[in-house]
């Protein structure tokens, strides 16, 4: 906005305060990027394929634990991702390949009918850890994007706070999405959930193949 003198009107003190504490542009960019990569709506069929035939409490527990695992993994790589990868001499293509192979094993379980059966409580925890928490939610793409944003921050605390806020926002959206997945169970019933498990297995297999292909392409591009 321009004043009559032609000078730009100063921002309000509250706007300056927010801008000085948090990098709003980076917050918006990181939030949108992570939402697109982690794809909350797209995880619902896989989530139901894994725990759709369990009790309501078990589904809520799996959603909460899976999102918590994802949050911890993403936070770990945001804080020390560059150091971890450098110390272990691991590149993003290696993460993609490992994540793809792991997802392929889970996909085969779903396609053969082993992924949506009733398991003990310890198995519920395992499902929340793998594949839900990682590599489905906190997968190679989300990890790589987080590391890129950390590098982009360049030591600026306002940027670090923006990235932290974006990570929290995305995981709150994930939690809300997975906890509302129970509404679909009332619509599709038992047979629908079984069919959804097969579709989820097929989707996971496709994601796994794409991750492995991206891994191979990355190795070729990097000349490894």
UniProtKB/TrEMBL annotation:
It is a multi-pass membrane protein. Keywords: Cell membrane, Membrane, Transmembrane, Transmembrane helix. InterPro entries: Multi_antbiot-R_MarC. It is found in: Cell membrane. The keyword ATP-binding does not apply. The chain crosses the membrane at residues 66-88, 94-113, 125-151, 157-178, 199-220. The keyword S-adenosyl-L-methionine does not apply. GO terms for cellular component: plasma membrane. Pfam families: MarC. Belongs to the UPF0056 (MarC) family. This is UPF0056 membrane protein. It comes from Lentzea fradiae. The lineage of its organism: Bacteria, Bacillati, Actinomycetota, Actinomycetes, Pseudonocardiales.
